[in-house]
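Dock zinc ion; give full complex structure.
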Amino acid sequence: MSILKELQSKLPENAMISEVKFEGSEIVLYTKSKEFFRNSDGPIRSIVKELKKRLEVRPDLTITMDMEKTKKKINDIVPEGAGIKEIYFEPELGKVIIEAQKPGVIIGRNGETFKMIKNETCWLPKIERAPAINSDVVRAVRKLLHSEIDYRKKFLNKVGMKINSDIKETDEEWVRIAMLGSGRQVGRSSLLVQTPHSQILLDAGVDPSSDKKPAIELPEFDAEKIDAIILSHAHTDHSGFIPYFYENGYTGPLYCTPPTRDLMALLCLDYIDVMQKEGHSPPYGKKAVEKTLKHSIALNYGEVSDIAPNIRLTFQSAGHLLGSSLIHLHIGEGLHNILYTSDINYVNSKLFEPAYTNFQRIETMIIESTYGGSQNTLPPRIQAEKDMINIIDKTVKNGGKVLIPSFAVGRAQEIMAILDAHNIKTPVYMEGMLWDATAIHTAYPEYLSHYLQKSIFRYGKNPFISEIFHRVAPKERNDLIDSADPCVIIATSGMLNGGPVIEYLKGLAPNPKNTLMFVGYNAEGTLGSRIQKGWRDLPVYNQKTGRNTTIEIKMNIETIHGLSGHAGRNHLVNFVRNLRNKPDKVLVNHGEPKRCIELARDLHKMFKVETNAPKNYEIIRLK
Ligand code: ZN
């Protein structure tokens, strides 16, 4: 590997390097010199600049302090307020992991506490946040990654070798994109980016209204040739099919942000459960989700990472969901830049800032159009919040209950933050899934809006642990439905295509005092969408008779517009307008056919760019 030789020639003489390795897009150096380990920041910075590769210096085990002594030392150095939960080691990587409630305290004002730990123990500290609500998922994911450290070291090295391999000369450079899903539909989002040197899969989701999977039967699709899968966010219409590839022999990397990784695990495991409960056979088993996690490479917003010999990936915030990302691909040396927005929001919601727009270059943009139709302008958020609070007040005064169907992730936490901000006193009930998803939010507050970060970090007020929220077990459902007390129930799934919300709906539907309140998007063909269109017969499967009957829905039906996690037409246009650099070509996806077409038509008129609303199975040459 020529780059490793080049690197070694640039290192100072006292570096005493015992091992140099690729680890994903990073190059990792293990040193036997305490001196170099402590003072490598300066020399490394200049090498990074020259080589344009990320470097990390780690201690060779011959220089690290004894583990028990190290633990003691860390407890001595770190101020009490940090709330250290656990200290453990990854000797294979020369790291000491410190899990604490307040990581900021361990890092110190200018990183001085961090440096002190590093310098005194000669371990490389890695600091993780302990969630404010105990999260089984976060714990399980961290434990899995920790226990698989040997495998991961080898895996990351393999990925790194591939990324740094030489490119074969070709007669012509080209970039094209194949629509495997999300072409004029909401569901099974999946795009394949191809160049002569690499193939990258962007998202691989399932369709909430049918069993359809991404179009992997496309003649040229070959899972073995995929260099990397990139996941924009955890919703199953983007992530739900990814474990399938790992179950069927794919061993390449999956790139996503840390919260996306954890939420994806939660949602894919739930997807398997829901499928099984409904008597369908899921496309993969639970082991496949573990395998997926084992091959995940987490990147934070703004981190630039090589993912193939000719492709560089950067995530930026999309404003849609915890950890949700815009995916920016830089292909070749300035050959072509792709921005895949996936799902975006472009308002200041309670949870997130609007999507990032400050990209240096974009030639092709793929943009969603959930609310892309010319009539899909969304009202101001403040109004939507007020409407929601009014409906809850009215129902509660009437002695009724409010049922809010919601995705486990995203809407639910947004609603929680709004209810908390409006000082609602009515009890709010949620089942385990929603609770777990909320707990994951408390592990990654740095991915939340400035508003929430300020509330949590400065005032110590975390809306997710407010006492109005109660966890309810499935066996307590009937008691909750039968009780005379007004309350709010948030339950999955958001589009009424399965999940506990159906059980609550069956119980609450016959009473006109109750309210069913939609707060998010309902895809065509789902029960949610049918009810919004006026359907009032709720099909119910009777287990005793084995027959389907119907219940008439007499409860009040409300839809709140403007609380969506997706940008409205007005916001989509603003997003494009505010991009630092306009793309030459825009592909519109992730919307009903009419909405895709209307957004493509209008963006063309407004911004004088080439636009297209491709169908599934279409292949488009970008360069
Ligand atoms: Zn989404």
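Observed: The domain at 64-130 is CATH 3.30.300.20 (GMP Synthetase; Chain A, domain 3).
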